[in-house]
Amino acid sequence: MSSREIFSRRSFLRNAAGYGLGLGATNALFDLRLLNNAVAATNVSDYKALVCLFLNGGNDASNMLIPWDAARYDNYRAIRGPRLALWRDAAEAAARPLVGGAANPNAYYGIPLTGAADSGYAVHNAMTGVQTLYNQNKLAFLPGVGTLVEPLTRAQYRAGTRRKPPQLFSHNDQVTEWMTSVPDQISRTGWGGRSVDRMKEELVRQGIPSGSISMSVSMAGSNTWEVGDIVNQFQIGTGGAVTFTNYSGTRKTLMDKILRDPGAAGGDALLDAERANLTLRDFRNINERALLNGASLSTALTRLTTGNPDAAIGTAINTAFGIPATVASYNNLSGLEQQLHTIARIIAERNYLGMQRQIFFCSIGGFDTHGDQPLAHNNLMASVSRAMAKFYAATQSLSIPEKVTTFSISDFGRTFKSNGLGTDHAWSSHHMIMGGAVAGGKVYGTFPVQQLGGPDDTDSGSGATGRFLPSTSTDEYAATLARWFGLGESELDIVFPNLNRFANRNLGFMG
């Protein structure tokens, strides 16, 4: 065998996720994992879904969630300045002063949050959908979240006496560390993938089928968060499953001989017998699983269309997203809305597909706002807020808002001090959690002291820019979500090997 042919079977399975097709691990690998992991008993016969919303590029969360009491707001406004700070109201924004004798592009202001628990915060005026969900106690904020190896104070950071995540302020490294939740070592898997692996094991232990498509679905291509050892990503588009073109007639017959099991599935027995190479067998298994995933999903989504069994449900989802009864109107949805619309349709067919647990990944880019930030960030905040509100309304139309939890992640936050036109890479950020099971209407955790060179700033001196230290680790954030998803305490320690270094295993934002 040539060196080119020698590579690990598990690596092949993981890398094949990049083909944009549904994948399935082999029984041998799964059985080994099952023997090594006794999962705590939990009820997996109900349905739960986690939806990860990735704000790609590093969201300036300091202009997404702002302090609204007079003292903290005045401090925020003084430091961020008239070009960047959100104004108090629409009238003040309209009367904004010139900047350097030129027009001021910052025409945006804060709108207050009035949830049940507190009212000391506001959000960007483009986020009326998020504001409404928060005020209805269906959405919560968690400020000051970031990658941490262990608890870290400003003094320890400055002195270098405790470990910090490598390559801070780097897009690629911080995205990987967010998605793996293991910043102090190289991890082949993401915490979403590891979580769903444990749930797959528990389904098998209880004799419950795991469904006819993968438990892990990505709407935004290959991602680290969903990489697991057992359950592999099923990558699809907003039009549904990605499959072979012209897969019909004689072409289908010939492809089935190569890619399917012998017998009723259409595979060629002689050809199958010649596959002594394990990699070739995996290639066959992967492609067959892809065909089955695609066929199952396509059939399920067709049920939601006119003239089919669940057409009324499909119409209700369309209504939630503001889609009239014309196919062309789908193009009026933003890219994120299209992704969440497809996720809602898959969730709607959960019973037909036999799903008990699912994780979904969706993404919106454009958050690397080094320049001309006010307009760009306004448009991004509007797009995110509108899509989240529509998606929540869709879960309501399905009568399962408490079964679906959507949460945001991003590369990192951005500097509190403007670079003149926008903001630069920083560390901790604020995030949103939305769903019927969320104990919403509250800002959890610890909001940073917004002071340049202050107790939460990694910078010092006249060059301080406000790269705030995280007060909450990604482990604590993710573990709270994974516990709601169904993981027991021992499984949390497996999925999050650094969790025991931090004080809070449960942040309380899931009811």
Provide a compact summary of the structure.
By secondary structure, the chain is an alpha/beta fold.
Question: What do these coordinates show?
Answer:
The chain is α/β, with parallel strands linked by helices. The protein has a single domain (37-210, 303-501), classed as Alkaline Phosphatase, subunit A (3-Layer(aba) Sandwich). Helices cover 36% and strands 11% of the residues. The strands form two sheets. A nine-stranded mixed β-sheet has the order 8-7-6-9-1-10-11-5-12, sandwiched between helices. Strand 7 (234-237) and strand 8 form a beta hairpin. Helix 8 crosses helix 17, helix 12 runs antiparallel to helix 13 and helix 13 (335-348) packs parallel to helix 15 (373-397).
Task: Name a few traits of the molecule.
511 residues, alpha/beta, Alkaline Phosphatase, subunit A, nine-stranded mixed β-sheet, three-stranded antiparallel β-sheet, 12 strands
Q: Which topology does CATH recognise?
A: Alkaline Phosphatase, subunit A
Overall pLDDT level: 88
Low-confidence runs = 1-41
The secondary structure category is alpha/beta
Strand fraction equals: 5-15%
What is the share of helical residues?
Answer: 25-40%
Distance between the termini: 56 Å
Instruction: State the order of secondary-structure elements, H for helix, E for strand.
Output: HHEEHHEEHEHHHEEEHHHHHHEHEEEHH
The major β-sheet equals: 9 strands, mixed
Q: Can you tell me the CATH architecture?
A: 3-Layer(aba) Sandwich
The rounded Rg comes to 24 Å
Shape: globular
CATH C-level name: Alpha Beta
Number of strands: 12
Q: What order do the strands of the largest sheet run in, or round the barrel if closed?
A: 8-7-6-9-1-10-11-5-12
Separate helix tally = 17
